[in-house]
Amino acid sequence: VQEPEEKKIALELLETEQAYVNRLHLLDQIFYTELMKEAKNGKTVPEEVVKMIFSNISSIYQFHAKFFLPELQKRMEDWSCHPRIGDVIQKLAPFLKMYGEYVKNFDKAVELVTVWSEKSPPFQELIADIQQRKVCANLTLQHHMLEPVQRIPRYELLLKDYVQKLPPESPDRGDAEKALEMIFMVAKHSNAAIAEMERLQNLWAVYQRLGLEDDIVDPSNELIKEGPIHKISTRNNSTSEKYLFLFNNMLLYCVPKVIQVGAEFQVHLRIDVNGLKVRELNDTQFPHTFLISGKQRTLELQAR
Questions:
Q1: What DSSP assignment string belongs to the chain?
Q2: What's the pLDDT at 290?
Q3: Which of 2, 3, 215, 222 could form a disulfide with 248 if both were Cys (CB 3.0 to 4.6 A apart)?
Q4: pLDDT tens, 76-100?
Q5: At residue 214, does pLDDT exceed 60?
Q6: Domain limits of the chain?
């Protein structure tokens, strides 16, 4: 007898979950535990570094090994009487928010492995030693670390497929659809967390280039555009090199610093976007010019 399609997908979920738990076991119980032990002996790297590399992998491992995998196994054993997995996945979904932490930390973690492998030969040797074991299947620590980052999109795909293959009258339909909705929200949540983190990192980098002026540093600002510009001086018909940063709420008119110690730019003017007017000028002598007039001041500028 041909197995129904939805059962095949449920079995694939179970098999990939089993493999995933083995991978988490390797990360948490082998890599993390052994690297931590050596760090505590003061032989390799600071304990803090090991903690930062593995983030909250222990919680993720415990959750999958002690809760989700056993529940899924029970469901598949009962499949002939009760063909359903939707309810278990609904229980899983809220816990997937734990991944936000891990995913957000991932790039930094991989960078730490690289940096400390160069700084500390014993650290590198220990990692190499673990990587040579059979359980690593010839793959690097970084490769294994990527697995949790890819797991949520995998749940989403499998579950989407499962819902599509369910017969309309299946008792699992309601639960499975609700579970898919929940997983979709979590996936969106972790993507939003990454995007927000990138935005803040970029913003911080801009603030550093501006010399961290107190009244400018605000985490809610959004940088829209930046670039070089020429200021036209009508008095002596000349232009001078300036630089603009346009945020959602303000325009910063800056002068590039000749000697770059710390900051690259000095903020000369800050004009509120509120009430700002921009008008193109048809100046034959200076093409591509426009006038910016704000509460604080009016400037005649020339673009490249």
A1: -PPPHHHHHHHHHHHHHHHHHHHHHIIIIIIIHHHHHHHHTTSSS-HHHHHHHHTTHHHHHHHIIIIIHHHHHHHHHTTTT----HHHHHHHHHHTTHHHHHHHHHHHHHHHHHHHHHH-HHHHHHHHHHHTSGGGTT--HHHHHHHHHHHHHHHHHHHHHHHHHS-TT-TTHHHHHHHHHHHHHHHHHHHHHHHHHHHHHHHHHHHHHTT--TTT--TT--EEEEEEEEEEETTTTEEEEEEEEEESSEEEEEEE-SS-SS-SEEEEEEEESTT-EEEEE--SSSSSEEEEE-SS-EEEEE--
A2: 87
A3: 222
A4: 999 999 999 999 999 888 888 888 8
A5: no
A6: 5-189, 223-302
The structural architecture, per CATH, of the domain 223-302 is Roll (2.30)
- pLDDT tens for 129-167 read 999 999 999 999 999 999 999 998 899 999 999 999 999
